Amino acid sequence: MDRRKALMQMGMSLGYVVAVPTFVSILQSCKDKEQQVWNPIFFTKEQGVTLIMVVDSILPKTDTPSASEVNVHVFLDNFAANVMEKKQQNDFKTTLDAITQNSLKVSNKETVEELTQKDIEPVVRIFLEEKGKENAFAKKIRELTIWGYKCNEYVGEEVLAYLPVPGEFIACDSVEKLTKGRAWSI
């Protein structure tokens, strides 16, 4: 690896480390705003509707809350507006628009408001599996969705294994016994 790439990666890592506390506070502040209508600050209304369905396709509601229930879409909107470079912002919007257009074409619907979660899910799956120019940013959206989900206060305390005051150290035991199979919260 050459020196410039190493320095650039170190700088990006430092930027993420500095940005994480800010965005964790954004997610925590959004927790009580579930009743309010979300108005995207970076995306258009149509892209916002698509984003909600995309994050719910990536992390749907099971015995844990879906990504939109813990406001991952709000986190991604703020992250795109405040942290991403212009090229990444354009790629994000282009990918959301491509998912919307493909979903409209496959479902034979005319507007984004008519689309349902069932219309978007297969298209998102295709975007994540196939390679191509318009699909390139779909994996980054998945990574950011998972990251935003794991950084959420509710998920960290209620979904993941959470121990605010560490107890005794048990070096060799099963994860099932120690955390009931759940990953540790950071």
- Please report the total strand number as a whole number: 0
Largest sheet, if any? none
User: Spans with pLDDT under 50 lasting ≥5 residues?
Assistant: none
Order of helices and strands: HHHHHHHH
| Average pLDDT number | 84
**Helix count from the secondary structure assignment:** 8
Radius of gyration: 18 Å
Structural category is mainly alpha
Q: What spatial form do the alpha-carbon principal axes imply?
A: globular
Overview of the structural elements:
With 186 residues, this protein is mainly α. The chain has 8 helices and no strands. The chain has helices at residues 3-30, 45-58, 72-82, 86-107, 117-129, 138-150, 153-159, 175-179. The mean pLDDT is 84.
Topology:
Layout: H1 3-30, H2 45-58, H3 72-82, H4 86-107, H5 117-129, H6 138-150, H7 153-159, H8 175-179
Helix pairs in contact: 1-3, 2-4, 2-5, 3-6, 4-5
Give structural attributes.
single chain; 186 residues; mainly alpha; 61% helix
What is shown here, in short?
The protein is mainly alpha-helical and 186 residues long. It contains 8 helices and no strands.
